[in-house]
Amino acid sequence: xxxxxxxxxxxxxxxxxxxxxxxxxxxxxxxxxxxxxxxxxxxxxxxxxxxxxxxxxxxxxxxxxxxxxxxxxxxxxxxxxxxxxxxxxxxxxxxxxxxxxxxxxxxxxxxxxxxxxxxxxxxxxxxxxxxxxxxxxxxxxxxxxxxxxxxxxxxxxxxxxx
Length: 162
Fold this sequence. Notes:
The chain is mainly α. Helix content is 77%, strand content 0%. The chain has helices at residues 2-67, 76-95, 98-104, 119-150. Helix 1 runs antiparallel to helix 2 (76-95) and helix 1 (2-67) packs antiparallel against helix 3.
């Protein structure tokens, strides 16, 4: 009885340690995923702000050059705002890419491997297949045995068949 208590005590301590270790690793994984997602969200917000400021500066420079009746509206501020808007669009494409979000969520894009059947399931499947084949052959054999009885030499003795 003492040995059983010692074994059970050991197993419960090992079980607690395993559960605690799994919980800690799960917590670390969730924290890493949250960090990745927050970085992507921050990048997205920064690029949206840069896009808005680039478009605003390019638009205001274009409008002011039109009001001054200048024919050369491609000034440095207009080109800088346009370049900032284009660069921020590139950053948005990067930060909103599906691949990065799937990596941040730790989701695999590969299809999951097909489930492997256990040996017991395989054995049961083989037994069921053999039983189905046996039943199929039994269904075929009564018809064949009836025909063989009709052609047998003693088949004329039964008046019901005549």
